[in-house]
Amino acid sequence: MCGIIGYTGRRPAGPIILDGLRRLEYRGYDSAGIALFGDHQDFYVAHATGKLDALIQRVEGTLPPAIAGLGHTRWATHGEPADRNAHPQLDPDGRIAVVHNGIIENFEVLRRKYARGPFRSETDTEVLAHMLAGRIERGEDLLDAVRAVAAEATGAYSLIAVDATDPGRLVAARIGNAGGIVVGVGEHENLAASDLNALLPHTRQVVFVEPGEFADIRAEGVRYVDAAGQDLVKTPETLPYDPVAAVKGPYKHFMQKEIFEQPGAVLDVMRGRYFPDGHVDMSDGVPFDAAWARQITRVVLVGMGTSMHSAMIGRHYMERFARIPAEVDNAAEFRYRRPVLDKHTLVISIAQSGETVDTLAAMDEARRAGCPQITICNTPGAQTTRVADGTLLMRVGPEIAVASTKTMLASMLLLHGLSLYLGRLRGTLDPTAEAEQVRAALQLPRAVGEVLEAAGHVEAIAAKYAQVEDFLFLGRGLGFPIALEGALKLKEVSYIHAEGYAAGEMKHGPIALIDERMPTLAIAPRDEVFDKMRSNIEQVRARRGEVIAMVSQGDHSLDGIASDIIELPEIDPILAPFVSVVPLQLLAYYIATERGADVDQPRNLAKTVVVE
Ligand code: AGP
C-alpha cells in the first residue's frame, strides 16, 4: 500500500526521492516523508500530513546536498495520518532511519521488549528503528541487524534502512508477500523502490527482491543475501516499459487517460496472441500441453475487486469455450474456507498489480494443494508471476489511477483468449467457432473506440445524476459482473453509495430502495436475457425510479421508458462486457469530476493492497 524508495549515488538524492514519491503516490497518499544523508552523521528529515504536495511545499528550498535518501508515501494502518506517524521513522538517537510497507504483526510485544526511549509515533514501524539501533550500537553490521530484526518481526512487509554513520548504504528487505522491493541498477548509483514506476526514469535494469531476501545497496554495487546471510546470485532483468507511459500527457487525470487508452490496450493484449487467420496462441502464458489440458477437471478463478469481476466474466468464457466447470472466488474468502483442490484443478489468478496480498495467499493455498496455476498480471516480475506456473502479461503499460479500467479489459480479453486456447487443446472447441471468436475480438478496438467517441453523451448524463446519493446497477448473465463493476467504480471515485445486483435478485430486496431519488443503471443489450431486463426496467419505472438503459445500437424499444439511453456499438454478444463496462467507467469518472472528487487518488484507497 505505502510506497517506499531509497537512492544512493553521485547525483543529488533529494530531487530523485521526491520524483520517486510522485510516481509512488498512487500507492498511498495520506502523508509522506523524506530523509537525506550526506557526509555527516546528522541527516535531514521532513514529514508532512496530506498529499505529497504538502511535503514538497514543506521542503522547498531546504533540501541539503545528499548522496543517499529515503522516501515514503503512506497509507495508514497503525496510527492516524499525522506528521509523527509519517515515515521515515527514526530511533530515539536519530541514527537509524527506516521506511516500511506492510504490517509488523507483533509490534506491541517488540515495543515492550526493545524500546530505547519513548516512542514518538503509533506506527508499527518505529520499533524497527529502535531494534536496529540497539543492534548497531552493540557493533552489529547493518545487514546482519536487518536480518536479525526481520527474523523477529512477524508479518508481511518490506523495508529500507539507513545508518547515518554509513550514509551511502541502504539495506532493503522483503519479508513475506506484502509489497515488493525492486532494485534499480544504475551507473555509479542504485535505487530500491516498492515498484517499477519509481525506477523507470533512472534505469531499466532491475532485480526483483523475493520474499525472504535482503539487498545491501551501495552506489557501486548491490549484494543480495538470504535470511541465513548466504550470498545470492541475482542477475538484472531489462524492462520493456516506456517511462512516458507513466505521465498524464494531455489528460486531466490518469483515470481519464487510461479509459481512453483502451482501444490501444486491447490491441496490445491481442498482439502475438490473436491471429487474423482465426486462431489464438496463448502459449506465452500456458506452459502445458494438450494432454495436460485434457486432464483439467475444474477451473477456479480468484481475484479481488475489479479483478474478481473480470474473473466472473472469465468463468462464462471458460465454461462456454473450454467446457470446463469453472468457479470464481473472492481471493480473501477462498484462503480461509479450506477449499477442495487437487492437481487437476487449474487455478487462474487475476491481479493487475501482481502484489495483492489476498490473491497471493490464495495462490499459496493452491500451490500447497499442487494445483497448476496461471496468473494474469500487468506488472512484469511481480510476485504473482513468480508463484504461478505461467503468466499472461497484460502488456498495457502502467495503470496509475487507483480505479482500474484498462487492466479490466485486458484481463477479460486474456481470459477469453485462454478459454479459446484451452478449448482447442482439449478438443472442445471446433476451429470454426474459434475463428468466429477471434474475428469478433479483432473488432474490439473499433467498438471500444466508438464508445469513447460518444463520451460527451455520457458526460451529459453524468451531470444530470451527479448529485444523487444512491445508485443501483442491474445486469443479467454477462451483464451481472459489469453491474458490480459499475457500482464499484462509482463508489470508488465519487463516494456515491452504489449497489450492483443480478437483475433477477432485484425483487428479492433491493426493490424496496427504489424511489425517484435512486436511479438505476440497467445493462440491457439485445441478448437472450433482454426481455427479462426489460421487465426489470418496467418494475423500476413503476416505482418512480429513473432508469439509464444501456442498449444495443439502434434499439429504440426502451425509448420513452428509460429516462436516458446509452447505445452500445455492435459487437458479438459474448464480448458485450467489453463495450458495456466502458460507459460505466466514463459515468463514474464524469460524476466524480462533477462532484470535485480526487479521481486518481480517492480517499482511503490505495492502488496495491498489500495488507489483509
Ligand atoms: C479497482 O478499481 C480497485 N482499485 C480494486 O478493487 C482492485 O481491482 C483490487 O484491489 C485488486 O487489485 P489487483 O488487480 O492489483 O489485484
Summarize the structure.
35% of the residues lie in helices and 24% in strands. It has 612 residues and is α/β, with parallel strands linked by helices.
Task: Give the arrangement of secondary structure elements.
Layout: E1 3-9, H1 13-24, E2 31-37, E3 43-49, H2 52-59, E4 68-74, E5 89-90, E6 96-104, H3 107-114, H4 126-137, H5 142-152, E7 155-163, E8 170-175, E9 181-185, E10 189-193, E11 205-209, E12 213-218, E13 221-226, E14 231-232, E15 237-238, H6 254-260, H7 262-270, E16 274-275, E17 279-280, H8 290-295, E18 298-303, H9 305-322, E19 326-330, H10 331-334, E20 345-351, H11 357-368, E21 373-377, H12 383-387, E22 390-393, H13 406-426, H14 431-441, H15 444-453, H16 455-465, E23 470-475, H17 479-494, E24 497-502, E25 520-524, H18 530-542, E26 547-552, E27 564-568, H19 576-594
Helix pairs in contact: 3-4, 4-5, 7-13, 7-15, 9-13, 9-17, 13-14, 15-19, 16-19, 17-19
Bound molecules: 2-deoxy-2-amino glucitol-6-phosphate (AGP).
2-deoxy-2-amino glucitol-6-phosphate binds next to helix 9.
Features:
binds 2-deoxy-2-amino glucitol-6-phosphate; alpha/beta; eight-stranded antiparallel beta sheet; Rossmann fold; Glutamine Phosphoribosylpyrophosphate, subunit 1, domain 1; 3 domains; 612 residues; globular; 24% strand
Structure characterization notes:
- With 612 residues, the protein is an alpha/beta fold.
- The chain folds into 3 domains: 3-250, Glutamine Phosphoribosylpyrophosphate, subunit 1, domain 1 (4-Layer Sandwich), CATH 3.60.20; 271-440, Rossmann fold, CATH 3.40.50.10490; 449-594, Rossmann fold (3-Layer(aba) Sandwich), CATH 3.40.50.10490.
- Helices cover 35% and strands 24% of the residues.
- The chain has 19 helices and 27 strands.
- Strands 3-2-4-1-10-9-11-15 form an 8-stranded antiparallel sheet, covered by helices on one side. Strands 5-6-7-8-12-13-14 form a 7-stranded antiparallel sheet. Strands 19-18-20-21-22 form a 5-stranded parallel sheet, with helices on both faces.
- Helix 3 packs parallel to helix 4 (126-137), helix 7 runs parallel beside helix 13 (406-426) and helix 16 crosses helix 19.
- It is globular and about 80 Å long.
- The model has no long low-confidence stretch (mean pLDDT 92).
- Bound molecules: 2-deoxy-2-amino glucitol-6-phosphate.
